[in-house]
Write a structure and sequence with these properties.
- This is DUF1003 domain-containing protein.
- Keywords: Membrane, Transmembrane, Transmembrane helix.
- InterPro entries: DUF1003.
- By secondary structure, the chain is mostly helical.
- It has a domain of about 100 residues.
- The chain contains four helices and no strands.
- α1 packs across α3.
Length: about 160
């Protein structure tokens, strides 16, 4: 009897199940699902079925392999559909996972952008408050013009009183 030690890794078990890479299988299923959704696939299937039906309907009896109700053709199409549906669902699930990750990244980017906009808004408001306390060029120009007018008025008053 072997003792299970917790300080050592477990021995690898040999299994009968075949090993497969889920990511590679997912990529393959997406490629197949993408192909199943094309016009090329529809044309290929239409040509295949037409040739099948024509061959088994028109060819001499000893050369046909699937007579009129075309049971074998029905079996093939049923098998194709039974494999296509899960492959399409797997491809959709993988796309949903990618969309979920993209959505999360978009949400994080939006939050970051929102925080930056709020920061910049606060900075602009602070600058406006600071500028409100500073004298602007127009304000200084107006004050200087008023002082010049006052000096002219004062000088005119002095000049007028000194000449009398």
């Amino acid at each position: 009897m072997t003792v299970n030690r917790l300080d050592q890794p477990r021995e690898l078990r040999r299994t009968i199940r075949p090993h497969y890479d889920p990511e590679a299988f997912g990529r393959l299923s997406e490629r197949i699902a993408r192909f199943l959704g094309t016009a090329r696939f529809l044309v290929y299937m239409t040509v295949f079925i037409a040739v099948w039906v024509l061959w088994n309907a028109v060819a001499p009896r000893h050369l046909t392999f699937d007579p009129y109700p075309f049971i074998f053709l029905t079996l093939i199409l049923s098998l194709q559909a039974s494999y296509a549906a899960p492959l399409i669902l797997l491809a959709q699930n993988r796309q949903a996972d990618r969309d979920r990750v993209q959505s999360e990244q978009d949400r994080m980017t939006t939050e970051r952008n929102q925080a930056e906009v709020e920061y910049l808004t606060r900075e602009i408001a602070g600058l406006r408050i600071a500028l409100g306390e500073l004298a602007t060029r127009d304000y200084i120009r107006g004050e200087l013009e008023r002082l010049v007018e006052d000096l002219r008025d004062t000088g005119a008053d002095r000049g007028g009183t000194g000449s009398q």
